[in-house]
Amino acid sequence: MSDEPGLEPEQRLPVPRPPAEPAPVERFSGPPQTRSVELTPERAAQVVRQSSNARWVGFLTVVIVVLFTAIYWFYELAPLGFTEPRLDSESNAQQVTAVERGYNLYQANCARCHGKDGEGGIGPALHRQDKLFAHLSDDYIAAVMEVGGRYVCGNPDSLMPVWSNEGHPPGPLNYVQIEELITFIRAPSDQTYTIRDAELQEPKLDPVTGQVQTFKGWRDVDFKPAPGATPYPACWADEFNTASAAPSAAPSGSGAPSGSGAPQPTSAPSGSANATVVPVVAQGIKFTTTELTAPADAPFVIEFDNQDAGTPHNIEIKDSAGAEVFKGEIFPGVDKRQYQVPALKGGSYPFICTVHPTMTGTLTAQ
To answer: How far apart are CA 108 and CA 273, in angstroms?
Structure first.
């Protein structure tokens, strides 16, 4: 605008100024090639190669991820039944281990009262199918382990102590051992398990045959109670292991299977003709006579007198290798039984009470 004084406003309009010459200074100090935005042929080829490599890397990454997913799917979940799912396989392996450990715990702590194969004795039978069907559930056995035998039949004077270390007073077994013991008692009879050393967990070998010793579970998975039968049997106190027990008492997979040739408990009728009678008395948890004599190569009768009131006893005869030759019926005293023993070859045979292995003696067949 014009700055001359005395002019009217309309006369003070912008007026052109003479152009100013810029200072002669270079705007960019770098070389021309750095200011160029165009790609040289070499740079363009390099960009193309990098883009191609990136696409290949992405493709290979996708292929690897797809293959890993497929392999993991087959390995972990085993679809279409090709293999067993990994988690199921691990669970089954742990179940087998628990049963085998529970077997050792049972033999060390429970067999004395409940029998080697759960047949009963001082305590009730455990291998009966009518009990295993529902009565001897995981929760019930765990409760008995924690509070002792008073939980059974409501008997405050029960001889069974507390086994769980969480009980009052604390018992000798921790919760893992209790779980393993329950797993053994509830093991199915259609599976075979290995008897292992309690410390080393190595399979035990039969001293005679050299074969790995095995056992089967007690619970018959196909067992169904009779129509109208209650899944919870009456109190066991009057049962012990008498012949009046239910026919379903022996599990299909425990003890000596039918037809295996293993001796079964038998008793002879009173006054068997032409048979030598060998008297034996049990009193004070011991045999009053520990040296017996019987005829060789001929059947004979053992007249067994149990003088211990309310305490079950029997006679089990073994050979020199420890194999069972004869096993008499377990029954509580005061009572008598006559056992008909099959013919034995000449020699010495140790005999014991199955319920009380400290009761021992020697039978000589001659």
So the answer is: 42
